[in-house]
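INFO batch 0412 | record 1 of 1 | parsing
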Amino acid sequence: MSDPRELFPRDPDATNVPPFETDDLRTQLARFLDSPFADPSGGSMKVGDYQWGVYAFFDYDGEPIYVGQTRERVRVRIRRHLTNQRTDAVAMSVLDPFEVLDIEVWPLPELEGVNKKDAAAKAKLNALERLITEEAVERSRFKAILNEKDPPVGAVTVTAPPSFRARVVSDRVFELRRHPDFRLARRALIISRLAQVISEREVQGGLRRVLLTQAKRMQWLSERRYQALGGAASVATEGDEDAES
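INFO prediction complete | emitting tokens
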């Protein structure tokens, strides 16, 4: 029998030790945010240290699931989403951090040091978020992502700058979470929580759109699992086996 200490190198009963998956996310996220990023002007900085930028989250099927922007540093905004659950998206069960496999960031190095209230800079940031959102929706098999609100409308147009994308879970966590049945169970839990939020509030169309998108994503994954077993033929076979027993 394996020594439990090999699976849990630190004492899991210690009050200052977080669960393995929580600790792993913090470690992998720090590695991602500390990754060097060389911008087109020749400068280089840790990707998480850029003040202005747009980011996107992708799930275990490569689906884009959420797009956001920041004017307070990429590091601060993404960590707030995935580690302390203080954003509306996570608190209201719009976004599930357990679904995030990859993150892509589009920094705007030319805006470094610009006041976050600067109108021209905000217009450029909004335009980039709008562009990345439109591209994410187009790439999605569901033609939808999980954002409750659409990006601000504006007259400015931009092209996507260079980006940085990487995985933010370890191989061990990937193996724990990648199984479709695990993800179905998790997705059902999130849908239930979101439906509860909707039932307790006077909500606008955004949250209901998210619920619909989540339901479509769950149906697609359920259908894929069902068909992998043979679909209707697998149910007929089960019936034959029951009759013979």
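INFO post-check: Strands lie at 36-38, 44-46, 53-58, 64-70, 102-107, 164-167.
INFO record closed
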